[in-house]
Design brief:
Order of helices and strands of chain A: EEHEHEEHEEE
Shape of chain B: globular
Number of helices of chain B: 16
CATH topology of chain B: tRNA-splicing ligase RtcB
Number of strands of chain B: 19
Largest sheet of chain B: 8 strands, mixed
Oligomer: heterodimer
Number of strands of chain A: 8
Number of domains of chain A: 1
Largest interface: A-B, 39 and 47 residues
CATH class of chain B: Alpha Beta
Strand content of chain B: 25-35%
Strand content of chain A: 35-45%
Distance between the termini of chain B: 39 Å
CATH architecture of chain B: Alpha-Beta Complex
Structural class of chain B: alpha+beta
Shape of chain A: globular
Radius of gyration of chain B: 21 Å
Radius of gyration of chain A: 14 Å
Number of helices of chain A: 3
CATH architecture of chain A: 3-Layer(bab) Sandwich
CATH superfamily of chain B: tRNA-splicing ligase RtcB
């Protein structure tokens, strides 16, 4: 089985986040790491406190969008950055814990705020080799 | 597929006749150079807009057009509510009412020369900018609805600025039609600490010098003279606007499906203007506009405080405040009849010509000031709306330089520290917390703003009044 991983990919005006994993939840967690790396160096974010997030959507694409949008909401209202994620599948969606810490501008040097996760290039699906991919372009 | 269908219609004006599902033509304003470099996706996106129900006259692309979510950035589309017309969250964008405010400082270059650094340091301390920054102003949930109803007027009532500022803001500083009850709690919560913050990305506060004047008459009407010191603030409705867009895109996708509206792209999500969701989005978006107007009003107040601390002779007055991500109900002449239309401008600036009833008396003769933000290393421009523009593009023009390369390409090519050093040699002070954030906004990552503005003028959408060069940039 391929190793779980994340990546950022180039886009004319914004940037794409992509997570790959053995399960849907693993791919979502990886994509969340990619999301944080749009903002700052992931290694600088310590997983000190946890926030619980629950998302319910029938469609995997929309569930993924709900997941990223919920994270953006938590980052914005709590002024936090996240670097560790645990996600489990529940009836009709996912339940997650995101660990992180409050933003410290001098230490994190956050480059940019993510305004929203978008439908552009949105995909959350099992690939032909059985692994999962979750991706979309984010508006910065 | 699109480029070969382009027909030149006039100087800096091109047309693609309707084909496929398009209901109206595409009209692009650009010179030969800009059209040659225009991304093929702009045509595709403009064609997708041209296929939406109730669109009137044409789907327009401004000279700075580039790929956007659903609608292109630099896209303008007007819809007739009586012909099944739609309102689109993707046609406004994720940063509702993102816009530009330009202030006179009452100072000239000679008066600030030599202590730019002190001013830059003070502004950087006073203006909350970048990720994680917070406003000292807290808006409780009780006050939130008042802010969303009142806009800049609300901010003035809270002690941020003067009543005289309001008449130099679109809609006199307060967008009517706002319905805070249609804004989600999540959206409101995102705003509690963000009123009076700049945000990040391409948002900024700049101190600028008037470096060129193109029309003496218009410059006089706008109170501008060579070497005047101006301040330009570029930002929008912050977390609240982003959340409204996220919330309503999801709702509109469902409505579009139920109404049988075919969406070439989900980010085009729209609903009939007369539908429940259409009306709710309009009310929420107007609340988002007020949020942006309040935000820029508070930022102007903070700027005034900073200037007052250093320069006793500073007198900061508002030239104008205009948004470039909106949908507004406007009256336009169609086939000889006045018609109320929902005009979407996404990355496009309203540019009303002389005599428009919405303009204050002292701008009636000149037309509306049009504020075009450039990059931190080049220049910004002030233009004036024209009479021809009213029929050419529903009184709309470009909004800025427009990106020419992706953020990741920019960070590969430049380092933030080098960008800051290079600009310092040109006499420009950059204040920003993140070197990567600065690299992403490097001037070279953008199209040539001068070419964009020249094409806008040649097309007749607006007239050039002045060029402003940056001295200090507080980067969001």
């Amino acid at each position: 089985m391929a190793e779980a991983r994340w990546e950022l990919y180039s886009h004319p005006s914004d940037i794409g986040v992509r997570g790959l994993g053995a399960t849907r939840e693993e791919a979502f967690a990886q994509a969340a790491l990619a999301l944080t790396s749009v903002i700052t160096d992931l290694a600088k974010v310590q997983p000190k406190e946890a926030v619980e997030i629950e998302c319910k959507e029938q469609d995997n694409d929309l569930l993924f969008l709900c997941w990223l949008s919920s994270l953006l909401y938590e980052m914005d209202t709590r002024r936090m950055l996240f670097s560790r994620f645990e996600i489990e599948a529940i009836e009709g969606g996912i339940k997650a814990r995101a660990w992180g810490e409050p933003v410290e501008v001098a230490r994190h040097e956050p480059a940019v705020e993510v305004k929203a996760a978008t439908y552009a290039d949105l995909k959350a699906e099992r690939q032909s080799d059985g692994t999962w991919i979750a991706q979309c372009i984010v508006d910065v | 597929m699109f480029a070969e269908k382009l027909k030149k219609r006039g100087e800096a004006q091109w047309e693609i006749a309707p084909f496929g599902k398009m209901r109206v033509p595409i009209i692009i304003f650009a010179d030969e150079g800009l059209i040659r470099d225009m991304d093929e996706q702009v045509y595709q996106q403009a064609a997708n807009v041209a296929a939406l129900p109730g669109i009137v006259k044409a789907s327009y692309a401004m000279p700075d057009a580039h790929w956007g979510y659903g609608f292109p950035i630099g896209g303008v589309g007007a819809f007739d509510p009586d012909a099944g017309g739609v309102i689109s969250a993707g046609g406004v964008g994720f940063d509702i009412s993102c816009g530009v405010r330009s202030l006179h400082t009452g100072l000239t270059y000679d008066q600030i020369k030599g202590n730019e650094k002190e001013l830059a340091d003070l502004l950087a301390r006073r203006i909350p900018a970048g990720v994680g920054s917070e406003s000292k102003l807290r808006v409780t949930s009780l006050e939130m609805d008042d802010m969303l109803q009142g806009g800049a007027l609300w901010a003035v009532e809270q002690g941020y600025g003067h009543r005289a500022d309001l008449r130099r803001i679109e809609e006199n500083g307060r967008m009517l039609g706002a319905e805070p009850r249609y804004v989600s709690d999540h959206a409101k919560q995102r705003q509690e600490k963000e009123v009076g913050t700049l945000g990040s990305g391409n948002h900024y506060l700049e101190v600028q010098r008037v470096a060129a004047v193109y029309s003496d008459d218009l410059a006089k009407a706008f109170g501008l003279a060579l070497n005047d010191i101006m301040v330009m603030i570029h930002c929008g409705s912050r977390g609240l606007g982003h959340q409204i867009a996220t919330d309503y895109l999801a709702k509109m996708i469902k409505v579009a499906r139920e109404e049988g509206i075919e969406l070439a792209d989900k980010d085009l999500a729209c609903a009939p203007i007369k539908s429940e969701v259409g009306k709710q989005y309009y009310g929420a978006m107007c609340a988002g506009i007020n949020c942006a107007l309040a935000n820029r009003q508070v930022l102007m107040h903070l700027t005034r405080e900073a200037f007052a601390q250093i320069y006793s002779r500073a007198n900061l007055t508002l030239l104008y405040d205009v948004s470039h991500n909106t949908c507004k109900v406007e009256e336009h002449e169609i086939d000889g009849h006045k018609k109320k239309l929902y005009v979407h401008r996404k990355g496009a600036t309203r540019a009303f010509g002389p005599g428009h009833p919405s303009l204050p008396e002292d701008l009636q003769a000149s037309g509306q000031p049009v504020l075009i933000g450039g990059t931190m290393g080049t220049a910004s421009f002030i233009l004036a709306g024209t009479t021809e523009g009213m029929t050419l593009s529903f009184g709309s023009c470009c909004h800025g330089a427009g990106r020419a390369m992706s953020r990741s390409q920019a960070t590969k090519r430049w380092h933030g520290k080098d960008v800051v050093m290079h600009l310092a040699q040109k006499g420009i002070i950059i204040k920003g917390a993140s070197p990567r954030g600065i690299a992403e906004e490097a001037p070279g990552a953008y199209k040539d703003v001068t070419a964009v503005v020249n094409a806008t003028e040649i097309a007749g959408l607006a007239r050039k009044v002045a060029r402003l060069e940056p001295l200090i940039c507080v980067k969001g």
